[in-house]
Amino acid sequence: MPEESNEHGLPSDEEIETRLRKVLGDLGEPELELSDDHVEAKTKELLDNTKTPGFDDDFNKRFDDLHAKASQVKDTRDAQAAQVKKTEKQTDDGSRGLSVGLTVAYTILGLPLLGAGIGWFIGAVAMQIGILVGAVVGLAMAVTIVNKANIQN
Protein backbone atom coordinates (compact mmCIF):
# COMPACT_ATOMS: atom_id res chain seq x y z
CA MET A 1 0.00 0.00 0.00
CA PRO A 2 1.55 3.33 -0.96
CA GLU A 3 2.13 5.73 1.88
CA GLU A 4 -0.14 8.74 1.78
CA SER A 5 1.01 11.88 3.50
CA ASN A 6 -0.09 15.43 3.87
CA GLU A 7 1.89 18.52 2.92
CA HIS A 8 3.97 18.30 6.13
CA GLY A 9 5.07 14.71 5.49
CA LEU A 10 2.80 13.31 8.21
CA PRO A 11 0.64 10.22 7.54
CA SER A 12 -3.01 10.80 6.70
CA ASP A 13 -5.88 9.80 9.00
CA GLU A 14 -6.67 6.81 6.79
CA GLU A 15 -3.10 5.57 6.98
CA ILE A 16 -3.04 5.94 10.75
CA GLU A 17 -6.29 4.00 11.01
CA THR A 18 -4.93 1.28 8.72
CA ARG A 19 -1.77 0.98 10.81
CA LEU A 20 -3.82 0.82 14.02
CA ARG A 21 -6.04 -1.93 12.57
CA LYS A 22 -2.91 -3.88 11.59
CA VAL A 23 -1.39 -3.50 15.09
CA LEU A 24 -4.63 -4.54 16.75
CA GLY A 25 -4.86 -7.49 14.36
CA ASP A 26 -1.29 -8.52 15.27
CA LEU A 27 -2.32 -8.53 18.92
CA GLY A 28 -4.90 -11.23 18.24
CA GLU A 29 -7.96 -9.03 17.96
CA PRO A 30 -8.99 -9.01 14.29
CA GLU A 31 -11.53 -6.55 12.90
CA LEU A 32 -12.31 -4.55 16.02
CA GLU A 33 -14.55 -1.56 16.00
CA LEU A 34 -12.38 1.53 16.45
CA SER A 35 -14.60 3.56 18.73
CA ASP A 36 -12.92 6.20 20.86
CA ASP A 37 -13.73 4.34 24.07
CA HIS A 38 -12.29 1.10 22.76
CA VAL A 39 -9.10 2.76 21.52
CA GLU A 40 -8.66 4.58 24.86
CA ALA A 41 -9.20 1.35 26.84
CA LYS A 42 -6.82 -0.66 24.64
CA THR A 43 -4.14 2.06 24.85
CA LYS A 44 -4.44 2.18 28.64
CA GLU A 45 -4.24 -1.62 28.83
CA LEU A 46 -1.12 -1.71 26.66
CA LEU A 47 0.56 1.05 28.65
CA ASP A 48 -0.26 -0.61 31.97
CA ASN A 49 1.14 -3.97 30.84
CA THR A 50 4.29 -2.59 29.23
CA LYS A 51 7.40 -1.64 31.16
CA THR A 52 9.45 1.23 29.83
CA PRO A 53 12.47 -0.26 28.10
CA GLY A 54 15.84 0.84 29.43
CA PHE A 55 14.54 1.96 32.81
CA ASP A 56 14.80 0.00 36.00
CA ASP A 57 12.13 -0.58 38.63
CA ASP A 58 13.62 2.13 40.87
CA PHE A 59 13.04 4.73 38.17
CA ASN A 60 9.47 3.53 37.64
CA LYS A 61 8.84 3.69 41.41
CA ARG A 62 10.23 7.24 41.61
CA PHE A 63 8.16 8.25 38.60
CA ASP A 64 5.02 6.83 40.22
CA ASP A 65 5.86 8.68 43.47
CA LEU A 66 6.32 11.92 41.54
CA HIS A 67 3.00 11.38 39.79
CA ALA A 68 1.29 10.76 43.16
CA LYS A 69 2.79 13.96 44.60
CA ALA A 70 1.68 15.95 41.55
CA SER A 71 -1.85 14.59 41.96
CA GLN A 72 -1.80 15.51 45.64
CA VAL A 73 -0.67 19.08 44.85
CA LYS A 74 -3.41 19.38 42.21
CA ASP A 75 -6.04 18.18 44.69
CA THR A 76 -4.75 20.65 47.31
CA ARG A 77 -4.90 23.53 44.82
CA ASP A 78 -8.42 22.56 43.80
CA ALA A 79 -9.49 22.48 47.46
CA GLN A 80 -7.92 25.89 48.09
CA ALA A 81 -9.62 27.35 45.01
CA ALA A 82 -12.97 26.00 46.22
CA GLN A 83 -12.37 27.52 49.68
CA VAL A 84 -11.50 30.93 48.15
CA LYS A 85 -14.62 30.80 45.99
CA LYS A 86 -16.75 29.96 49.04
CA THR A 87 -15.21 32.83 51.04
CA GLU A 88 -15.80 35.27 48.18
CA LYS A 89 -19.44 34.23 47.98
CA GLN A 90 -19.86 34.74 51.73
CA THR A 91 -18.22 38.16 51.48
CA ASP A 92 -20.49 39.11 48.58
CA ASP A 93 -23.58 38.00 50.52
CA GLY A 94 -22.44 39.94 53.60
CA SER A 95 -21.79 43.09 51.58
CA ARG A 96 -25.16 42.83 49.91
CA GLY A 97 -26.88 42.43 53.30
CA LEU A 98 -24.98 45.41 54.70
CA SER A 99 -25.99 47.62 51.78
CA VAL A 100 -29.66 46.66 52.17
CA GLY A 101 -29.51 47.32 55.92
CA LEU A 102 -27.96 50.76 55.48
CA THR A 103 -30.49 51.65 52.78
CA VAL A 104 -33.36 50.70 55.09
CA ALA A 105 -31.84 52.64 58.01
CA TYR A 106 -31.36 55.79 55.95
CA THR A 107 -34.89 55.48 54.59
CA ILE A 108 -36.45 55.11 58.05
CA LEU A 109 -34.47 58.05 59.43
CA GLY A 110 -34.31 60.28 56.37
CA LEU A 111 -37.91 60.47 55.22
CA PRO A 112 -39.36 61.62 58.56
CA LEU A 113 -36.61 64.27 58.70
CA LEU A 114 -37.49 65.32 55.16
CA GLY A 115 -41.15 65.56 56.18
CA ALA A 116 -40.20 67.65 59.24
CA GLY A 117 -38.13 69.98 57.06
CA ILE A 118 -40.94 70.50 54.57
CA GLY A 119 -43.42 71.02 57.42
CA TRP A 120 -41.11 73.55 59.12
CA PHE A 121 -41.21 75.70 55.99
CA ILE A 122 -45.01 75.54 55.95
CA GLY A 123 -45.70 75.99 59.67
CA ALA A 124 -45.67 74.42 63.15
CA VAL A 125 -48.73 72.16 62.69
CA ALA A 126 -47.58 71.12 59.26
CA MET A 127 -44.22 70.08 60.78
CA GLN A 128 -45.91 67.43 62.94
CA ILE A 129 -47.97 66.21 59.99
CA GLY A 130 -44.81 66.15 57.82
CA ILE A 131 -43.01 63.99 60.41
CA LEU A 132 -45.97 61.59 60.53
CA VAL A 133 -46.30 61.36 56.74
CA GLY A 134 -42.51 60.98 56.38
CA ALA A 135 -42.49 58.15 58.96
CA VAL A 136 -45.29 56.27 57.21
CA VAL A 137 -43.69 56.69 53.77
CA GLY A 138 -40.27 55.77 55.21
CA LEU A 139 -41.59 52.53 56.74
CA ALA A 140 -43.43 51.64 53.55
CA MET A 141 -40.29 52.19 51.48
CA ALA A 142 -38.18 50.21 53.98
CA VAL A 143 -40.55 47.23 53.72
CA THR A 144 -40.45 47.50 49.91
CA ILE A 145 -36.64 47.56 49.89
CA VAL A 146 -36.41 44.55 52.20
CA ASN A 147 -38.93 42.56 50.09
CA LYS A 148 -37.02 43.41 46.90
CA ALA A 149 -33.76 42.23 48.50
CA ASN A 150 -35.39 38.95 49.62
CA ILE A 151 -36.77 38.31 46.14
CA GLN A 152 -33.30 38.80 44.61
CA ASN A 153 -31.82 36.22 46.99
Task: Name some characteristics of this structure.
single chain; 153 residues; mainly alpha; 4 helices; 80% helix
What would your notes on this structure say?
This protein has 153 residues and is mainly α. 80% of the residues lie in helices and 0% in strands. The chain contains four helices and no strands. It has helices at residues 13-26, 36-49, 57-122, 124-152. The protein is rod-shaped, with a radius of gyration of 37 Å.
- Which regions are unreliable across 5 or more consecutive residues at pLDDT < 50? none
Order of helices and strands: HHHH
Reported for the largest beta sheet, the result is: none
Mean pLDDT, nearest integer? 79
Question: Distance between termini?
Answer: 67 Å
- Helix/strand/pairing class, anyone? mainly alpha
Helix content: over 70%
Count of helical stretches: 4
> What overall form do the CA principal axes indicate?
rod-shaped
Strand content: under 5%
CA-based gyration radius: 37 Å
Strand element count: 0
